[in-house]
Amino acid sequence: MRHPPIELRRGELCVAGSPLQLDARRRAGCAFVSHAHGDHIGRHDRTIATPATLALMNHRLGEPKRKARAEHLPAGYRQPFGLGELTLELFPAGHVLGSAQLRVSFKDGRTLGYSGDLCTDTTHAAERAEVMPCDTLVLESTFGLPRYVFPPKEETLARVRAFVDGALSDGVTPVLYGYALGKAQEILAFLSQAGYACRVHPVVHAIDRIYEAHGVALPGAQPLDPEAPPAGEVVVVPQQLAWSPAMRLVTRRRTAVLTGWAIDGDRFFKGVDAAFPLSDHADYPSLLAYARATGASRVFTVHGHADELAAALRREGIRAEPLRERAQLELL
After folding, report:
1. Same domain, 13 and 96
2. Which residue from 175, 170, 181, 143 is spatially nearest to 160, judged by alpha carbons?
3. Could you read off the pLDDT of 252-261 as tens digits, one per residue?
4. 328 falls within a domain
5. Is 329 part of a structural domain of the chain?
6. 163 lies in which domain range?
7. CATH of the domain at 169
8. For residue range 89-117, what is the model confidence (pLDDT) as tens digits?
């Protein structure tokens, strides 16, 4: 039986028969980085990613303490290029700015697709995801349970806007909690387009500037003023920085967290007034639909609820299984 084109080595995703690793957490000789969230990036000898992802990585990782030889290989969407005997091509993933899926074509004609973190919904601050046709698909499974069905995004955004309007009319500051990279820019783009003035934590503002440099307009977003409280403005901040020095003047506040995990209920979010299921991941029906749309005859699920999503795909007639590390025979 032919071995699959993807494997786990010491917990890292690797393209079989090649040195290429996918979203490696440890330093790799050559790695594809799907997007710039902290659990997907690292200092590699050679990094393949979109220009936006590389810019965000440089910002988030900073200068290394010791100078190390490293090569960045920027790649655009739908622009095939060679890597040894492989042909690689990136497709938008819709997750955050610059996020990408990767299709690997082998000399024998087989194709392997890696979704990375995927969001097939509409977006205000990232490239719209595209279907990536492939023979074998590696599919992220963050929300791979049937209970994770998100309401239409515009409905969720309308609820967020009503929350903001209610707080402003009551004379308190609406504070929206979201990840500094991705979620913050998504809600800021929506609010800016709707005419709201926003103040953001400095860590968000630094990432906003990279978004703007890559064509995402955020005209309503300004950094928090440490000398003056926000007046009639929305504040966007990562939840872990809710009580940081930059927020010390935001005293009369009404808070809401923006996350797909809000499907599990407000009770899971202590100390907030509301939780809205605004996600930058595909929900359960979207994952199933995406797997079908690629035409893949074999699917490996990774991360999150990989076992449950693979079982659901098998019920739909797709050969699917969670990707596991193969046991190695020990030499005696």
Report:
1. yes
2. 175
3. 999 999 999 9
4. no
5. no
6. 153-276
7. 3.40.50.10890
8. 999 999 999 999 999 999 999 999 999 99
pTM, entire model:
0.94
Verify that 163 and 267 share a domain, yes or no: yes
Closest CA to 291 of 299, 283, 279: 299
Q: 193 and 308 in one domain?
A: no
Count of CB atoms within 10 A of residue 121's CB?
A: 18
Q: Which two tokens stand for residue 246?
A: 């930059």
Residue 24 lies in a domain: yes
